[in-house]
Amino acid sequence: MRRFQLIHNITSPYRMHLFEVMWRELQRRDIELHVEFLTRAATHRPKSWQADSSSIQFPHSFSTDIGPRYKGVKWHFNPAINAKLAVKKYDYLLVGGPWATITAGLGTVFNRADRTIAWIEGTSSHTNSFSGKKRRIKRYLLNKYDYVAVPGEEGTKFIHRILDPTGPNSPEIVALPNIVSEAKFNPGPVDGEQRAWLRQKLGIPPESRIAIWPARHVAEGYVDKGVPEFLLNLNPDKFGDWKILLAGDGPERPRVEQAIAQRKLQDSVILHPVVTPDEMPDIYRGSDLFLLPSLLDPNPLSTIEALKCGLPILVSNRIGNYPEALRIGVNGWGFDPYEPSQVDTAVTSAFSASADTLQAMGLESLKIAANNWDSETIVAQFLDQVL
User: Is residue 300 a contact partner of residue 322, using CB atoms and an 8 Å limit?
Assistant: First the structure.
């Protein structure tokens, strides 16, 4: 039987779903999937992301990680994985983030697989990837692959700025959008039960409308959620009956609290602790709008989750899945987070929309989600391209 070897860092919930769908589809094609995880958990991710090995259905293993920590970043190094890749001749090899870990970098150079796929999530906003030595290293590693898998249009732009797409050795770019579980993320009850539950949980009036904003309070590396920056652009006089539910925590929390106080948003913005993946569907279903004003965000799963739950969206054009997720005026509003006038216009339009308009936009979000992020369709199409 042919073997599909996959190298990935941690057991994040959305990846577990992807790997399970991929495992089932590969079984139908008489191909065996095996996933090698570099570590069981990452310090910058919630503990709820650490999966119990006994709950993982697909074949997998964890290897000892002896990688160093440099400038606060853990550089995974798994000698056992690299030894396997250098000796075994796999039919297919998919490597997540070829330059993100020592393991992936060495595996890129020394593997013996027949067909290789790099898995990248960058966007055209990641300007620090396109200059000098970094670009040369990334180009060298990517040219070792037959294919580069990216989530969508922004990922393709990212790769084109590193590689010469017309070069004789350039890998072929294929689509592998991020996916979420349809069993978990789906529209809420039509009788408003979830809506009433959320308002009671938050202690706000039943008539209040809620914009859910799930965001870690971070501004580092490849992710900048832009939380304090967005709050400083808000006008409390334009909220009306709206509340923003900001779910998350992180090192930027003091700046977030300072921005709320400075703009006098204490009555309008609800700071909520980190929510587990299992709790998020109920919160989406009880909300009226999804908000994500990130300054830099490679491919946020929360956007797809919100679309699957039937929410209209109010999002920054700096999120990686912006081109696929938003049809302006159809299922929501978009803006450049660096342009205060655009932020004000988009927020004002969203917060002045009628309940009927929001509901109609939510139905359009469901259509977009079904067209762009159906789990089984995406995995089957990806495998059709690379096998």
Answer: no
